[in-house]
Amino acid sequence: MTYLFQNRRNFQLLAALLVIFGATLRVPGLGRALEYDEVWTLEHYVSAPLSVIFTDLAVPNNHLLHSLLAKLSISVFGAGVITLRLPAFLAGIAVLLLSIPVTLRLTRSRGVSLLVLAMLALNIPTLLYAQSARGYEIQFALLLAFAWGLLSLTDAHGRKSPWPAVFGSAAAAVGAVLTLPTSVLFLIPPLAFLVWKERRNRAAWTAALLPALFCAVWYPLNCAAFRAGQVFGETFAAPGDFFAFAASVLWGLAGWMLIPLLPGCFNRRRLALLPLLGSIILFPLLAALLTRGGGVRVYLPLVYPLSLLAAFGIALLCRRFRRRAGKAAVVLGAGLLLCLNAHQSYEAMREPDLAEVFAQAKELPPNILPVYRGNEAVAAEWNNRPAITHDQIERIRYRGRNPRCLLQLGERNGLSGLTEEGQEVLLPLGEPAETVKLERCTGRLYPLTPLRKAPEAGSVVVAILPPQSESRLRINGSALRALWPRRIMLNQPILAPVADASGTKLIARIFAVPAGDLTPADWEKALALRSTEMQFYFCR
């Protein structure tokens, strides 16, 4: 089958078709509703002055270079969901394009280059983050550009000036670090190999020292901010926890493509590359033992070395067959496995479209009150304002015959809300009476029973405060705060102030607290607070 790509023109045509195919796959999701992290980025950084973007680094949502590019995109093309995501989308296409010269320089194989390109085109984490206004795809593209620069440097050997590759790779490395501080974990292994291989090469040392000097200034300067951001990471109490974490990351990045990756580790023709690829994959994962582990997105650049090893495995299996039919069967089987993996990963990883979730939720009976997961309520309100607020208010005012129910939208049993400090908390409950599917989101239906006495253990008490003036809300809220210091607020971002016919501003609130937090004396006080302005229920 090599005749399909040994010809340079055929190879370029196939590569162009794969890039167009991958870019086309990344277009449909650009217009979907913004997710919570994207809303946070837009509201707190893209809309902020440059001084905030460069200094507010404690919250991981500020991917500095991405925030700058998104700000530029909106200023040039106007505000909109697609323009906000445009830098990440273009970076996704750059990942596909840059993988071609990087793989060619590493392997000298057009067939392997096409296999890697096909796997990147259909890799779902890479696809989804090319549709999200975050910095992960930009980091991935810059790290590939950095790798291309280093490989160009090692290939020069006096035939041409090495300095464009030196400064180009250094600029890409600095850009990656400015995008995400975790980029240093992906820079150290290739730079170490470069210095070792080209230890007498002044240009190689310069290429390593330039990003090292920048990191030596940048990280100490922002050490406190980066340390504060680590509270969102994962710690490991036992070795088994770490191995489970590493396995989940690798599976999330590669999925079923780990199958051809295993024989790729024993491809004798590629033994020289295995130490480099192994260190690039293992070093960031092992670093989690000293820092903290992150989600799959934190390790997105590992998709490239994993895909390269999988391509080595497919190439090795192809060489086991002398006839074209056998080689074709291997390639066809790998293609089917790749498509199956893409389908399963997409179903597992794609977040619900909150605009579509609300479109279906507003068709529910009026006695059902949807509750969005803590922080997700921020994105639900942003994508559906002001209709979602008016819908919630009408459901809070419900006085019909059918019993009132809460529909918690999420993946676990319980009620999810925010504390006064903004921390997301889940109050656990038992199995729901019924589940309701809204778009890709499973809702758990919990009937609300009016509170007339202390409920049984394991219940959650819910206080619904219908729309009322700010002064009344302040009085009623203070009474609840004194009684329930650990209460959480449900749908708090959605319950924005509304005006009545006279123009008076009215505000509604929903609070929840575990029944076990209240003493018998507290129950007497809670029951005494019942009124038209404070309605108490419980669910279990």
From TrEMBL:
It is found in: Cell membrane. InterPro entries: LipidA_mod_glycosyltrf_83 (IPR050297). One of its GO terms (biological process) is lipopolysaccharide biosynthetic process. The keyword Acetylation does not apply. GO terms for cellular component: plasma membrane. Keywords: Cell membrane, Glycosyltransferase, Membrane, Transferase, Transmembrane, Transmembrane helix. One of its GO terms (molecular function) is pentosyltransferase activity. It is a multi-pass membrane protein. The chain crosses the membrane at residues 112-129, 166-196, 203-221, 241-259, 271-290, 296-318. The keyword Glycosyltransferase applies. This is Dolichyl-phosphate-mannose-protein mannosyltransferase. It comes from Victivallis lenta. The lineage of its organism: Bacteria, Pseudomonadati, Lentisphaerota, Lentisphaeria, Victivallales.
